């Protein structure tokens, strides 16, 4: 049997499968959603590449010159009714090793005994000739499952790795790396 990567027990896996089917059925029935459930995709990298391709075609640019900028939204999924003009809104990620402070708009320490927290909606904004910010961000990897390993793909990345997003912080990269902070598409329960 072939399926998307998951560490869930069977009952949770079936519930997750039904949620994925409902997400895709809603897309078919109601049109393109304002916010995409990134965890619901079998291969989220292809969706993100498609987002960049749409921008590159509309802007008449080479896709090789386009990168993502990231903006964490204050609005919830329910409040975001319209799609952005450029890029896409994504949700469904969980932070491991830290939490998002919506008031301060940055990463902060986890509460005691809090392993995972829900991440706010992220706006993936395609930008031509993007230069990464010099400081004030943590380059946070997104993984499909809690297992931060997989077979190496042709890109040299793990098949479990999706993309890295830049999250605002007042701490150093090293601080969050030591805590193993990452965004996860699907938990194991």
UniProtKB/TrEMBL annotation:
InterPro entries: DHC, Dynein_C, Dynein_C_barrel. It comes from the Eukaryota. Residues 3-185 form the Dynein heavy chain C-terminal domain. One of its GO terms (cellular component) is dynein complex. Signal peptide: none annotated. GO terms for molecular function: dynein intermediate chain binding; dynein light intermediate chain binding. GO terms for biological process: microtubule-based movement. This is Dynein heavy chain C-terminal domain-containing protein.
